[in-house]
Amino acid sequence: MAKPPKLHLDRFVPYRLSVLSNTVSSAIAAAYFLNFGLSIPEWRVMAVLAANPGLSAAEVTARTAMDKVAVSRAVAALLGAGRLRRTTAATDRRRTHLELTTAGTRVYARVVPLALDYERSLMTPLSRRDRATLDRILRVLLGRAVELGPAKTD
Questions:
Q1: Residue 102: phi, psi to the nearest 5?
Q2: Of 8, 13, 6, 4, which Cα lies nearest the Cα of 148?
Q3: What is the pTM of this model?
C-alpha cells in the first residue's frame, strides 16, 4: 500500500487563511467585547445590516458565510440588547426583515473607526501594489471556493 502524501500545515493555504482569520478576529474581539459587549458574530451581523438594512437572517447567513446557528444567536443577542429590530414583511408574513435600531446604529458608528484603524495597522507593511494584489487574490480564491463547493471525499 502506498504511503499517503504528507500535509505540511505551514504551507497549506486553507490552514494559513484560517489561522490568519482567527488571529485577526481574536485580536479585535477583545476590544469589541470590552468596549461594546459585542461578540465577533454580533459585530458581523451589525456590519452586514448597516450596509444592507432589511435582510432576513438567512440572507445575513449567506453574506457572512457564518454558521446558521451563530447568526441566529447573534441576532437573538442583538434583539435582546435593543440593537436590532425585526419586522414582518407585508407581502409574506413568514418572512422577517432585520435592521439596526438607533442604539445599534450608535454602537456601529463607534466600532467602525476601531475596525478601520485595526485594518490600517494590519495593512501597514504592504505597499499599495501588494494591497491591490491581495485584494485580487482574495476575490479570485473566494470565487473559486464558491465554485468548488464542499470538498469531495471518495
A1: -60, -45
A2: 13
A3: 0.84
